[in-house]
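Q: How do we represent a protein-ligand complex in a form that can be generated token by token?
A: Start from the inputs.
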Amino acid sequence: MSKIKTLGEFIIENQSSFPYSTGELSKLLNSLRLAAKMVNHEVNKAGLVDIIGGAGDVNAQGEDQQKLDVFANDKFIQAITNRDIACGIVSEEVDDFIAISGSNESNNGKYVVLMDPLDGSSNIDVNASVGTIFSVFRRITPVGTPVELKDFLQPGKDQIAAGYVIYGTSTMLVYSTGDGVNGFTLNPAIGSFYLSHPDIKIPKTGNIYSVNEGNYTHFPQGVKKYIKYCQQEEDERPYTSRYIGSLVSDFHRNMLKGGIYLYPNSTKNKEGKLRLLYEANPMAYITEQAGGKAISSNQRILDIVPSNIHQRIPFYCGSTEMIEKLESFLKN
Ligand code: AHM
Ligand code: MG
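Then emit the structure tokens for the protein with AHM bound:
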């Protein structure tokens, strides 16, 4: 039997392979791990809302019940803010960036965290899986000064860590610090994440395509043609269509089995729907670390220099050969 390893042990063991090995990134990852467990606990109770009360109700402790996405946002912000490691946060739930001045207003935090605390939250009501997505950069302004907008507007290739939590049939935390991708599964009985998926690699090709085909009429020509290609009877095709509508779940499945995920721009959503900073960038980083490819309409996601914190972007990622095929359709 192979040796069991917890996420905590893994983080400590791999600390020295981080690009800036001061132990601070480990602490940051530990705080994200803690918040993930709290959110997991709450997400798992979501089906009991009618019995024990939902958003707007008052719980047994006399506290107002929060919507799950607000709860997740608060827990991640608290966990990150509680330690003097990060100097700022961008969250899908908050319009502006959050500055963390730290103890004695020291502004000593070296990192910024960008996150979607509960992605795919429309899935909660129907008991389908949701996720948390996070991205970490080193600040570019000097330590000791207040964080600035430019600290958050860095191209994705400068991320030093990224990951996601999937609250699914099992809860998993998958992350990379630039040295491959590892996945950890939560044992809910004891509250520990265990290394279950070491060194994940996306198969070079696959037979799954994931896209909201209801929007087909509004898609760019190249994407329409690619979708038709996926459906043709030839070679290994037609591919299988799988779409949960929860980015983390669709991404996770395709990463393990091989496949392509598409969220194109459309005549309805001219910029696309997904957010560059806390959806596309972290997923693109994980994709490349696992040997896959992630692009926007005509460039690598990780090369894009962001212009605002909630920027949207067309997003395509997955198995390298499938993305390259899509690229050939987009070029024409
Ligand atoms: P959200 O951040 O408001 O939850 O939206 C993001 C979600 C993704 O998880 C998912 O891939 C996508 O929206 C689904 O969108 P659609 O319902 O348009 O297919
Ligand atoms: Mg989202």
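The first helix runs from residue 7 to 13. Residues 99 and 285 are 25 Å apart (CA to CA).
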